[in-house]
Amino acid sequence: MAVKVDIRALLEAGVHFGHKTSRWHPKMAPYIHSKRQDSHIIDLTKTVEALEAALPVITATVAAGKQVLLVGTKRQAQDIVRAAAEKTNQPFVTERWMGGMLTNTETMVSRIKHLKTLEKKMDTGELANRYSKLEVQRFQEEIDDLNKKYGGIKDLNGKPGVVFVTDILEDVNAVREAKKLGVPVVAIADTNTDPGTVDYAIPANDDAIKGIQLIVDYVVAAIEEGKATADKKEGN
């Protein structure tokens, strides 16, 4: 059963409020309903259509045993994306996108392996037994720094099945790397972005916390549905 999208909920969350008309991208024209004062208003029927096209892709990806990489490095999106990823046990990036996170596999595998090795040695007490308190503290600082950069993708198993992005402009490097690898990108597309840069553009306000939360909630529901499908397959 597909995730149901409620247009009234989108309206109440302010998903329809676009940017100022002076900042618009012409390729967003098909998704714009009207102008209000000096801002564009997004056509929520287009938002519903876009979600209804994108969510089943996310569900099918998870049902096939693949991961969804959730990306939201903008301040308004960070906590929302991290909470969604932790709830669904999916990889995520909410701090700065480090160049090569998807495309430079060798370096990423090396950094994550180093992080996991340090964590294991810290947890087992090996570092405490071999080094002074000051040195152990420095190891902990290194672990914290590595986790800030790479913690969300520690359990990313190779190439993700889909990348979900909350802001096309803010996380353009994530979009570019995914496209380079042929990984489908689902993204919130505000009126100042080019929707053609992603595979599934969801026309919506990408600044309002309530709006971001609602769309991410739909993504979470799609992931959970995919997991349920995968569980049924395993049970048969």
Structure description:
- The chain has 236 residues and is of the alpha/beta class.
- Helix content is 51%, strand content 14%.
- The protein has 8 helices and 8 strands.
- The chain has helices at residues 7-12, 44-63, 75-88, 105-124, 126-130, 133-150, 172-181, 209-235; strands at residues 17-20, 32-36, 39-42, 68-71, 92-93, 162-165, 185-189, 200-203.
- The strands form 2 sheets. A 5-stranded parallel sheet has the order 5-4-6-7-8, sandwiched between helices. A 3-stranded antiparallel sheet has the order 1-3-2.
- β6 (162-165), α7 (172-181) and β7 form a beta-alpha-beta unit.
- α2 runs parallel beside α8 (209-235) and α4 (105-124) runs antiparallel to α6.
- The longest helix is centred in the last third of the chain and has 27 residues, at 209-235.
- The model has no long low-confidence stretch (mean pLDDT 94).
Q: Give the mean pLDDT.
A: 94
- Assembly type of the chains comes to single chain
Low-confidence parts lasting 5 or more residues at pLDDT below 50? none
The main sheet orders its strands as 5-4-6-7-8
Helix and strand succession?
HEEEHEHEHHHEHEEH
Shape: globular
| Discrete helix count | 8
Q: Span from first to last CA? A: 19 Å
- Which structural class fits the helix and strand makeup? alpha/beta
* Beta-strand residue percentage: 5-15%
What's the helical proportion of residues? Answer: 40-55%
Q: Report the sheet with the most strands, covering strand number, pairing sense and barrel closure.
A: 5 strands, parallel
Number of strands: 8
> Measured on Cα atoms, how large is the radius of gyration?
20 Å
